[in-house]
Design goal:
Elements lengths: L10 H11 L6 H21 L6 H6 L3 H9 L2
Keywords: Membrane, Transmembrane, Transmembrane helix
Membrane topology: Multi-pass membrane protein
Subcellular location: Membrane
């Protein structure tokens, strides 16, 4: 628990007691936050993985970095 605000950093630790005690004020943050984080993480992954090659083809060469450097020298 954070001493300043009293917020819990673990959504499961916040949602469970809130449901049992019927206190739902501010609970939306612990539900929407992980969903938004998951979606943002998916977009970030797609931005970082800038190649259209399947993962099998990238890992077949042994090193992703080696495969990029080989493609740049062609």
């Amino acid at each position: 628990m954070v001493p300043v605000s009293g917020a819990s950093m673990n959504p499961a630790r916040s949602i469970g007691p809130a449901i049992v005690m019927h206190r739902y004020k501010g609970l939306w943050v612990y539900i929407i936050g992980p969903l938004f984080g998951t979606i943002a993480g998916g977009f970030a992954y797609n931005l970082i993985r800038f190649t259209d090659k399947p993962l099998r083809e990238l890992t077949k060469s042994g090193s992703f970095i080696k495969s990029i450097s080989r493609n740049n020298h062609r």
